[in-house]
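In response to a reviewer's request, we include the raw inputs and outputs for one of the modeled complexes. The two entities were modeled together in a single run.
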Amino acid sequence: MRKILILFAHPKFEHSEANQAMIHAISGLENVEIRDLYELYPDFNISIQLEQEALFQADVVIWHHPIYWYSCPPLLKQWIDLVLEFGWAYGPGGVYLKGKYLLNAITSGGSDLAYSSEGRNQHPIGNFLLPFEQTAKLCLMKYLAPFHLSGTFKITDSELQIKANDYRDFILELRDSQVIDRPLRPKTSLS
Amino acid sequence: MNGFLANAVVYIIAAIICVPLAKRLGMGSVLGYLLAGILIGPYLLGFITNEGQGQDIMHATEFGVVMMLFLIGLELEPKNLWKIRDLIIRIGLSQVLVSAALVFIIAILIPIQWQTALAIALSMALSSTAIVLQSLKERNEMNSLLGKMSFGVLLMQDIAVIPILAVLPLLVVAVPELSADHADGMHGLIDSLPAWAQTLSIFAAIGAVILLGRYGFGPLLNFVAKTRLRELFTASALLIVVGISYLMELVGLSPALGAFLAGVILANSPYRHALESDLEPFKGLLLGLFFMAVGSTINFSLIYNEASTILTLTLGIILLKTSVLLVLGKIKNLQFSTNLKFAIGLSQVGEFSFVTYAFALQLGIFEQSLADTLMAVTALSMTISPILMLIFDKWIIPALSKNNESRDQKMDSFHEHNKVILIGFGHFGSTLGRFLRASGVEATILDSDPERIEYLRKMGFKVYFGDGTRSELLQSAGAEEASILISAIDNTEYSLKLVELCKQEFPHLEVMIRAKNRYDAFELMEKGVTNIYREHLDTSIKMGEDVLKKLGFRAHTVHRMAKQFHDYDEEALKVLVNYKNNRDEYISKNKQQIELQESLLSGELMRKFSVNDHTWDSDGIKEVEKSNEDER
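The model returned the following structure tokens for the whole complex.
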């Protein structure tokens, strides 16, 4: 059984039905730790020590966040800046994350179509996640294709419930399956 | 057994034995007092030698009912009273009229002379305010629909007392030798006046109560509160209730009704909670005595001799009133189990009937034997109805309501139930209060400075007068329902008292305390308080931040350091509190303080706080990159 660490970053969680449904679906699962970053660090003063300890325990790390301006909310970027220290996460002696899995679980208002080369955003979602993928690579982690809940502006309650259950199944599979056979890379138009 | 002290001892001992016993058995205090009364009454232990003595006590302690209505008025803001007007008028009036009519018809059929029958019917239609409200309060049901309906009926009955007393003299059959000044207190000064003047003086009296409530009592209480003598405040509270009762008696109105009116007018006053907590014990004592007196007046020899008549009458009247109320409840769409509770709760004959019996006897409408029988029936019904209530509560209602959950719990409550109680509304408390309010959280605010309260009320804050270290005051400020209690007072001894009180009486409350400095914080920590807020800490660090910025430090770096320093200081406090007690006693407090400062500024603790913040620095990376290039 793998240990899953979910680093959840949403500055206005109380207003996000999609993320509430998702978090609700995966709460209380064995070996799944959810760290609600905006609740833990409202002043952006992230405890590097505590975060590194949590990372060290985990086998699979998930950055769970909404897509804002084609990236993550600022606290998650702050987390990356502060916690992934030189000499710990990368660089000489920075081997503590080696071999762990990493992926983004994201929500976006735009639909799958909007995130395609024909769509409004002109690129598939994978292109926008490239900085995260490269961060994983630098830290010697295995970067997996994202879990993407798209079109949250128009989603119905029942569709959302199905998606939230999918997320739960997905997390359970990451936790329990013998081999993780998810594509290592998200689809991008670049490579 | 004669003498005031001896009597007091007997009564109190009986109450101390019976009431807790009754409560232990789940019967509620009313029944306990009634049983205590029976126990010391003429037929068991004989401490009270005859029913007359019991009745005297009863008259003396009826005042408890007046106080109770004043207190209930305090909890009912005028706009809430307006909300339940429909209950009072429709349900209350129908109850009185229908019950009286039915009793009247039955009495006529017996047959009894119609005048006597009418007097009986009007007296029996009323229920016991004292018993019903006390039980409702004890079971915390005042705010439910059941409580409101019961209250509506009782209020209407209290209003009905006025016309009933007016009608009785018209029923006189044979003119008895009435002395001009009959002793009954219900008739006052204005009897000799012509009718129009009587009516006028009644309106004048009600007007006086409203005006006094609006403009008189506030300044009086304000003036007294400034003296900071608690007993004077209690005395003023008593003066208000006694004074109004006296005024009402003068014009022949029900004192209970007048007191209720005054209570409603004072419901918005800042002194509401203080009045409540001061009068509560008086009310409790008087009502207790009153119930005991009722118990002691039950004439068991009469009941024994005429067992079948009296039992039939008692059960008959209970059954009749219950059926009338059941129908009314049905019309109001009460759920069956709630309806039963409502009907049985109000099924007894009330204490007011003792007054009408005595009055009717005086007027010659009743004969002595009839009055005795009726009194026995009334006292018995007052004892039986709580027992019936208990049976229904314990066995029948659980069985009924198993399948359908009560849905009438959601009625809005009589008064505010805030989640937060804020004590002290000075500079600290008011800033806190404003912030909470801006975030949509209303707090119940207590302060003990009358001038400040007056000012804040003008500014639109609902601030109440009172000393938060008194448990009754916290109780009436809603400590049972609240979840957080904040002390924003700059007096640590006071806060410590408060913490102690909350630990004992309201352990569910999360206490959050303002502390002057770290020494006060230590004391609070030793009491187990975890939420401690040193008043200077944040401001002084904030100032330090600004100093560093003016010296040329980058704002964000300073901000991060300040936060780290703040956390370090809080952590250090937790370490230092352990050393505080180990110090030898001879070290003067002053020296102790200096040592404490030193250990804060240097040594092990300081090392934990790292001023070296490497985040976003690339120096380390540069060095490594450089050496890599050198190797190449």
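As requested, we also summarize the result in words. The two ends of chain B are 114 Å apart (CA to CA). Chain B touches chain A at residues 560, 563-564, 567, 615-616, 620-621, 624 (CB under 8 Å).
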